Amino acid sequence: MYSLRGVIVILCALLSASRAQDDVKKGPCDVFIQDVNNLTLNCSRRNIDRIPAWPEEIHKIAGKDACVLITFFNNSITNVTELGTVPGNKIAISFKSNRIKEIEDDAFKNIHRLVYLDLSSNRLSGDVLRSEIFQGPYKNGVYSEISLETLNLGYNQIHSLDKYLFQYTPNLTRLYLNNNPIEILDHVTILAISSATKLEVLDLAKTDIDAIPLETFRGLVNLKQIDLSGNQFLTVPESLSLVGSTLQYLTFNNNPLVELNDDSFLGLSNLLELEVGENNYLDEVKRSTFTPLKSLRVLHLCHNKKLKYISHNAFRGLKEKWTLKEVYLDDNNLSELSTDLLPWDKLEVLGMTGNNWLCNCDLANIVTKQNAGSKFKPGEIPYCAAPMRLSGAYITNITVSFCPQFDTTFALKKRFSVSDLRPKHVLWSILGVGTVVGIGMICGLFFNFIKAFFKKNLRSQPIQYVNINDDLA
């Protein structure tokens, strides 16, 4: 997900921090020189409250592509003052887990090749963070830029960012704002984020936001990865479609969404990996939910404790040009899956553990006939929860032998012949005809009797005419 150089720098910084012993040291910082190209200055866990001067050994680095790693992890530093010059082409500094609540202007101007800076787990507020912190040396009437590529501001007290914060860091590609009480991406914060036009990774996890305005992504034409976990989103933000042509990794865990539908991932045609997990209210994945994800390779749909239904058309339109290689459906509330949900035999890895599987004919078809049983990782074969006689058995052990077998061939129609008649058939035919004739005769006699009765008793009487004049006389 990260660029190779970024990963190397981050791992090196973590490695240097791990070399510190668990007990607090009070001596000078430790210097580890691997060669002329690699030096680590470990000042972690020293109970220091201010930044010391650099030791002389730090100037022994002479390689053209020298990498210098400096860590002040887990101290009591409250103020970052102007740092001394550090030789090297790639410099990483970590102030993680201190008590920093102030950073002086020009703090990093002497470290022009600073590419990685970790200020996470401190007491920084948005008012403290300003562009003057990151400005380089003053030359010809202007401040120069620094080479910062990765900035970690996670676990602080940031509500908002200054709109000019990244004015002197044009190469910023990874920004971590996770675990800050941002709540609302206000206008100035949006301007700050959108000004980092080379940004590739953006972490907004656990910032209590519930919306991302469209303007946030308008300038981020290189964004590849975003983490929106642990927020208050009821739906996947529509604004993500603005970076759909570049976005490759989306993490959307632990949000209060109830369903995923055909609008959830519109425009994300180049997404390679999607993670939607730990969403405690998600109970349904509807028709055509994943249809827009035409390049998806890995799907994590795990740990959604109420998810009990996935539409058999959830991947509608993708089966003809199937790209998915790994699908993880672990630890949901699923019991059944449709046999045509996806082309099971085209997967490379399938995860289904931690569900209450009903081992019926459909599941047997998926596991055996469609070869899904061979896609499970070793030690991660799911169990049957029902019916009772199969409870606790691996789903790979069930077969289709107990399922009804239907003959789909058509038998030729046989013509009738006199030789097919049997005595009982003739007898029943005679009795049937006699019964019908008898009933007809009885009905005819009854009808004639009724007709004769009415003629005899209800015959019409002749009309008699009376002369009115004779009556009056």
From TrEMBL:
Ranges annotated as spanning the membrane:
426-450
Q: Which SUPFAM superfamilies match?
A: L domain-like
Keywords noted in UniProt: Leucine-rich repeat, Membrane, Repeat, Signal, Transmembrane, Transmembrane helix
For this protein, the record's SMART domains field holds: LRR_TYP
Name the Pfam families on file: LRR_1, LRR_4, LRR_8
InterPro entries, per database record: Dev_Immune_Receptor, Leu-rich_rpt, Leu-rich_rpt_4, Leu-rich_rpt_typical-subtyp, LRR_dom_sf
Q: Does the keyword Transport apply?
A: no
Q: Does the keyword tRNA processing apply?
A: no
Signal peptide residues on this chain, from the entry's feature table: 1-20
Its protein name is Uncharacterized protein
Annotated organism of origin? Euphydryas editha
